[in-house]
Design brief:
There is one protein chain. Strand 20 and strand 21 form a beta hairpin. The chain has four domains: 92 residues, conserved putative lor/sdh protein from methanococcus maripaludis s2 fold (Beta Barrel); 81 residues, Elongation Factor Tu (Ef-tu), domain 3 (Beta Barrel); 64 residues, Beta Barrel (OB fold (Dihydrolipoamide Acetyltransferase, E2P)), CATH 2.40.50; 75 residues. A six-stranded antiparallel β-sheet has the order 2-17-21-20-19-18, with no helix packed on it. A six-stranded antiparallel β-barrel has the order 3-12-15-14-13-16. Strands 4-11-9-6 form a four-stranded antiparallel β-sheet, with no helix packed on it. The chain starts with a helix and ends in a 15-residue tail after the last strand. Helix content is 26%, strand content 36%. Helix 2 runs antiparallel to helix 3. By secondary structure, it is of the alpha+beta class. The radius of gyration is 39 Å and the shape is elongated.
Length: 370
């Protein structure tokens, strides 16, 4: 749809005036208060930090082995050993079923005794030609059938005894009760989860790393691990060189039995970028900047530096590896150049900036949007 002639004539003028107004407003903005740091050369060990967490080697939701009403269960926080009772079910139904099956077996045993005696008598008579062979064969067949029923009954009896044992469910391993999914008096079905049991002694640090690093990690290698509770060096227990089709990540398990950290805590693991951690072409020319200098916007990673006119300049960078509060990046940067670490949230290229010594007085300047 075409615009009326008058509107078509005035539209270019409108956009020109709008642009001039925006430039005038931006040029007359007060300088943004920022805090800076100096870009340094990369002299650190070549490591990439990957997120992981502390896991238990045995972490199970223990389920009921049969249907029944819970009469007792362990409390959250209880520590148990292998074989200790975790929860109990009402035994009455299992006991009644066991009594009934034992009675059935006694009846079959009596029938077997009678048939064995009958077969013996008929064999004696058959040897004297005083009875028919058909009757003897019939009794022998009945004896075999009752023996088969006894075998099946004994198997059923063993299963009922096992179900009675399952009314007191024992811990499959030593650990701590961390969660209860049922309560006393509740009726649970077979396979219903009742208690969560976690082994708090046998622990691993689990971390996923890109498959391209698989040659850099071997079982027995010591890796640096950091968490909110401290630092440690742990030995690789297992390196599984198999990745999924989507993320292309493989799994590392580090032996963490020596740590007192709680299961589930987040950790960072330092992964070497090469088998001998020697410089590579790209990483060798990376620059060290504080982590706070990174600006992440709409899938773009960049930093803001200050030029000779005290104007902000946005520079795209590529992250490589980090250590403590710094991170190595690749980009069009210079050693000794000032990079903005505070106050870059709403900056854009060309914005005037003013350095401050500390965080006090740091403000966001209106109008500086990306």
């Amino acid at each position: 749809m075409s615009l009326p002639p008058r509107i078509s004539v005035f539209l270019p003028c409108f956009f020109l005036l709008s642009s001039l107004f925006s430039f005038h407003t931006f040029a007359n903005m007060p300088p943004a208060l920022v805090k800076t740091a100096v870009i340094k050369a990369n002299t650190e060990a070549q490591l990439v930090w990957r997120n992981g967490h502390l896991i238990s080697r045995h972490n199970s939701m223990v389920a009921s082995r049969m249907m029944g009403q819970i009469t007792w269960l362990a409390e959250v926080g209880d520590e148990v050993n292998t074989g200790d009772i975790l929860f109990k079910l009402d035994k009455k139904q299992a006991e009644l079923a066991l009594i009934k099956q034992e009675a059935e077996l006694r009846k079959h045993e009596a029938q077997r005794t009678f048939l064995e005696q009958e077969v013996g008598r008929l064999k004696t008579l058959a040897a004297q030609n005083n009875t028919s062979k058909t009757l003897l064969e019939q009794r022998v067949a009945e004896l075999q059938m009752i023996k088969a029923e006894i075998d099946a009954g004994q198997s059923l009896l063993a299963g009922l005894k096992l179900e009675l044992d399952y009314t007191d469910l024992a811990a499959p391993f030593s650990g701590m009760v961390t969660e209860r999914f049922s309560q006393i008096g509740q009726v649970v079905n077979q396979t219903d989860a009742v208690i969560r049991l976690v082994d708090t002694k046998h622990k691993d640090v689990k971390v996923k790393i890109p498959l391209k690093f698989w040659q850099n990690v071997k079982a027995g290698m010591l890796l640096q691990v950091q968490s909110a509770l401290g630092n440690a060096k742990l030995k690789i227990r297992q390196a599984v060189p198999v990745g999924d089709n989507k993320a292309r990540l493989m799994e590392l398990l580090l032996d963490a039995e020596s740590l007192s950290w709680p299961v589930g805590i987040a950790v960072d693991v330092a992964i070497p970028l090469s088998p001998l951690a020697t410089p590579t072409a790209n990483v060798k020319h990376a620059f060290l900047v504080p982590r706070d200098a990174l600006v992440l916007r709409k899938g773009r990673t960049s930093v803001f530096v200050i030029d000779e006119n005290n104007l902000a300049l946005q520079v795209d960078v590529i992250e490589t590896f980090g250590m403590e509060q710094n991170i190595a990046v690749i980009g069009e940067l210079k050693i000794g150049q000032k990079v903005i670490v505070r106050g870059a949230e709403r900056l854009r290229t060309g914005a005037a900036v003013q350095e401050i010594g500390g965080q006090e007085g740091l403000v966001k300047v209106r109008g500086h949007r990306s």
